[in-house]
Amino acid sequence: MSLSQRKEKILAAVVEHYIPTGEPIGSKALCEELGFSSATIRNEMSELCELGFLEQKHTSSGRIPSSKGYRYYVDNLMNTSPLEDIECAKLEAMLRSGAKTPEKIIENAGGVLARLTNCATVITTPADKSASISKVELIPATAKTAVLVLLTSSGIIKNCVCRIDIDINDNIKDTFKKIVDKYFIKARVAELSEEMLEEIISALGTEDYAVKPLLSALYELGREAGESKAFVRGEGNLISHSDYANLSELMEFLQQREQLSRLVSFEENRDNSRMSILIGSENYFHEMEDSSLILSRYAFGDNAMGTIGVIGPTRIDYSRLIPDVEYLTDMVGRLLAENFGDNDNN
Amino acid sequence: MSLSQRKEKILAAVVEHYIPTGEPIGSKALCEELGFSSATIRNEMSELCELGFLEQKHTSSGRIPSSKGYRYYVDNLMNTSPLEDIECAKLEAMLRSGAKTPEKIIENAGGVLARLTNCATVITTPADKSASISKVELIPATAKTAVLVLLTSSGIIKNCVCRIDIDINDNIKDTFKKIVDKYFIKARVAELSEEMLEEIISALGTEDYAVKPLLSALYELGREAGESKAFVRGEGNLISHSDYANLSELMEFLQQREQLSRLVSFEENRDNSRMSILIGSENYFHEMEDSSLILSRYAFGDNAMGTIGVIGPTRIDYSRLIPDVEYLTDMVGRLLAENFGDNDNN
DNA sequence: TGTTAGCACTCTAAACACACGAGTGCTAAA
DNA sequence: TTTAGCACTCGTGTGTTTAGAGTGCTAACA
Fold it and tell me: What is the pTM of this model?
């Protein structure tokens, strides 16, 4: 649906007034801004209300944008400007600082974005179903404990500490290595199964039985490596936004990560463009109906991707946040490629 | 300072009424509960006010406990009961699930405690200044990238991914191993210095120069291993507590972790008992003056320790939360010892 | 036919007065 | 030393009023 130019101007003006101030705006104020008489604007606004682009809290209040109104604004009317160079440099520094592991870079990015936007953020680690185990290393730590390190073809690293019942001798190491080479190396993480593990374990001889905890741990690591994990950061930021009627409901929603994960991965699959924006009632859960979600995908290796996004009230500054999120995911993708990319010829 | 028995009874009754309800209580209600006449109670309460144990919001309101009042209650009047067995089992399961790395167990515990108490939690990873580097492993991942794993004597594991400019050949590995053995193995993490790193690097021959990124990364890992890190979880829980006048100030305080870290590590050093409780104005920062902090230490290895704690409004159920925190730190300590302890003869 | 001025109407928010009740401090009696 | 009684304080809740912002509708105008 397309609106007349005048309606578009009015809608844009309403949105751009409401976003920074949080106050409804009436015909009189718009009249000064746009040059049409207040009566004309009243007529137009009344129609915009009927069409569902604007709302009013009560008969004699000014108008505010509806979810549909924001949507039209974001799709057709909004001007975004790229980030300032200084900003970019600052962000890049924050992203580079400290993190030296793909997961940590990603997690850290969530915190950075939360600070930048003063909103909550959601970050999912990449799930690469086609990834396979490329390397497994056993590093003895004390006599009976060892660190297990697993690398996947897509560049994910997982480690854990594992204790076994007897001293880790060469025999144990050998047995473990043989089993790893035979069953785990090159195996797709998505295809690791409980049954396979059981089978391997049940085939162990009595003197080899001590490696069982190592195999269980390795299996767990493989599973983890194939799963996407969602983090939420900066929930606390939301309290500074006065828009939320009952924030605690939203908080609870954010706390139990599963539904949010589903929402994010559903969007990943639904829309294969880089960004997706869900405004107010467009979110699939009623807990999110007063919120907007700006999601953006980053690439990880050749096949995997993850999502970074912002959660805030519907009344957020889309024109600022969208480039913010975009830049950040971009930067994360670049950092990942630069540090951990397969491509060795740069 | 010690109070008369009757004053103690009154103080306890005020606290125990205020904590669950959040409502001030007057002489009349207490009269019914305690059996003394309302006038007697009024006199006593008036004195308790003068002594600083009680407060009133305005002349004709009931009394509420002051920080000092809570303190007296916690120290002298409170009854705590240990956790139910079912609760314990549930918590243990939650703590055991997933985490297979010291850091992850600790971090996870913060989340578990946040859910359990419906408060924010703070967790610090152990800082063991006396820890030394016990093992360094270089695991090639792709031709030019490798995973670096570092273990310390106290059981901390750190890893990162590192890219160098040339292919990781045997020469590189050798050079790296020699330098590691000579300068890093057995070195105390607290004594790693920028100068030492510079020195090692400047002594590199041209053909060995490619290991520089590996050494820098290793240095970073060592530094990290010696530093305590603070996490905050469950900030969002705080909004469900109606006590806070301006929560955003507190949220901001919790977001910038440094001050909170300082507070926690200061307490670690000030008081060598297992728990410390800071109530309202006893906290050193004005952002925390409406909050209480219940901290408890867990042991990590022989020399290191970390802290787990709860942050909530002063009006929290001390008699429940104190055993909660205590049990949780206990459990974390036990889990760490069980899985990663040096002690191999159990 | 589209635009505008004017007017009556609606609704909210703020200001005010008022009564109620919870709670106090003080005094005097038990 | 404790208690009963009483006058006083103060916050909360309620009802009323008023000002103002904004609307919809109608009629006039270009």
Answer: 0.90
